[in-house]
Input
Amino acid sequence: MKIGTIEFGEHPVFLAPMEDVTDIGFRLLCKRYGAAMVYTEFVSAEALIRDVKSTVSKLTISDQERPVGIQIYGRDVEAMVEAAKIVEEAKPDVIDLNFGCPVKKVAGKGAGAGMLQNIPKLLEITRKVVDAVHLPVTVKTRLGWNHEQLIITELAEQLQDCGIQALTIHGRTRSQMYTGTADWTLIGEVKRNPRIHIPIIGNGDITSPEEAKRAFEQYGVDAIMVGRATFGRPWIFKEIRDYLDGHTDETIDVNTKLDILEEQLRINIERIDEKRGILHTRRHLAATPIFKGIPDFRQTRIALLRAERYDELMAILEQIRSERFGATDTVDDDHQEADER
Output
């Protein structure tokens, strides 16, 4: 599979862009464990052209995480074009247009999935961004606004005609938000369309290696994108890659997984500061599958999520390691939802 000149090989697995999740530290961990491409948190076009510091900081990328995409969202044609030009100066490998975020503060204002209610403007933004930059432009969107407006099969052709070089489809409508089950049927229909020649990337409910394999085999997508299942589980990319490649004996033990989470904590503290670094990591500690199924864990979990100092949090994690995990202990994997863009 290729996007522009970027060669990904067979059956690549991408990290989905997620607000307050896919910061540079987390992206680097996911890359280390096999993510074929990673994406930044999504970037507001309006805030970017106003030079809002917190938004501009999201453009920081590292050569160690390449290939990397920067995703932008907005509802104004000129703002999206100008933002794309600014993003190009940050030198990502791909510029992705977000037409899929369902949250009210975005879609309710006509951006993200809100653009699915204004297809002419959606296509105008896409065409003009493609014309304005030299990098590959891709799109991430949903099946439609609701189940009465499942427009993705026609929209995919229209977006391809605008010049995008790949399309990611989340198998839900905007009205579903993140509820229910992702419907991959229409994703497969888009991929089977003989008019479609750009890569189709499937997204939605990929939480295990088995589901990843089924997505490739049953729906024929060129790549898959994993979002919420990466929470507290950056090693999921290795699990999927090993399963797809037939290396099912190459597992990561639970103590190594705990090491990874502790490293993520240190990265976030070094990248931001102690207080905010801990806050940024708590979401992953709350969702990680390695604590799932541990009996009488409630009070320990509360202590984890209330800790405000690095030494305090590390002491709790090391206590969990010594009291709950031995070298051969295993805990059933699971995942907890997070907002995926």
Observations:
- The radius of gyration is 20 Å.
- Residues 106 and 156 are 22 Å apart (CA to CA).
- The chain has 14 helices and eleven strands.
